[in-house]
Amino acid sequence: MQFSAMLSSYNRQNVQVLGISPDSIDSHKQFARKYKFKVTILSDPDKTVIKKYGVWGKKVFMGKSYEGVLRTTFVIDSYGRILFVFESVNPTGHATEVLKKIGKWKNECGMKELGMPLNPITPKPGD
Question: Which of 49, 59, 82, 102 has the most neighbouring CB atoms within 10 Å?
């Protein structure tokens, strides 16, 4: 919910926020309506993407083991490079933590957006 509440802050940083879960598109729509959720949630019922990112695994709740989505946040630039991975995420304060990390990284690199190359290539005249 915090990412949804802070979406305008992410937009100002030119950062797009997406979620992904194995739930159906219809269940995502119902969830978004019920909780006024603004973040786009992608549906991956076959868990193709979820498994490729290594975030499907064993979880334990009240002493019972089961398979599920492991709470993880990836910060990916517009070139598809994974910049940061936050594992075993505690939702409280996490959206703020991620935004601060992105802002600090952009500031240290002198970047305006996540998609700028680390070493920009300047074309030669005539190229």
Answer: 102
Per-residue pLDDT tens over the stretch 37-84: 888 899 999 999 999 999 999 999 999 999 999 999 999 887 788 889
> How many whole angstroms separate alpha carbon 110 and alpha carbon 93?
26
Place of tokens 């290594």: 54
Distance, in Å, from the CA atom of 42 to the CA atom of 45, rounded to the nearest integer, reads 10
Instruction: Answer whether 73's CB lies under 8 Å from 98's CB.
Output: yes
HEC string of the chain equals CHHHHCHHHHHHCCCCCEEEECCCHHHHHHHHHHHCCCCEEEECCCCHHHHHCCCEEEEEECCEEEEEECCEEEEECCCCCEEEEEECCCCCCHHHHHHHHHHHHHHHHCCCCCCCCCCCCCCCCCC
Domains and CATH numbers, the chain: 2-108 (3.40.30.10)
